[in-house]
Amino acid sequence: MTTNAQAPALVSAASISERSDPAHVATLLDAIRRLRKVAITYEDGDGAISERTVWPITVVYFDHVRVLAAWCERRSAFRHFRVYRVRPASILDDRYPERRSLLMRRWREQDREWRSFLTVSDGARG
């Protein structure tokens, strides 16, 4: 049986890409492993900036984009954040209140649209 700390922090939904991750992805992966909330600044596709506290559960790797899947406290829902739009994150002292395995299950059940990212192409960005 896999515990929360042992569960993979990454999900690969496409072939291996030669793109490299932004440096702050290591912080996000560390927060996932430690089950910690993260304070992020996020820039959406229109350039609007927002501050969020999220419970990061996995980073999904697609051919042309990396996506952080997380529970967003601001929206009270699962959200997907393109990692190149996340400004360097701060790991908070607070652990999220649910086991990561339960969050992962809820994410897969409630937000099956995450699979729609399989067709996303961001050109040179990632």
UniProtKB/TrEMBL annotation:
All copies of the WYL domain together span 24-89
Matching entries from Pfam families are given as: WYL
Task: Tell me which InterPro entries the record gives.
Answer: CBASS_pafABC_assoc_protein, WYL_dom
Tell me the protein's name. WYL domain-containing protein
**Species of the source:** Rhizobium hidalgonense
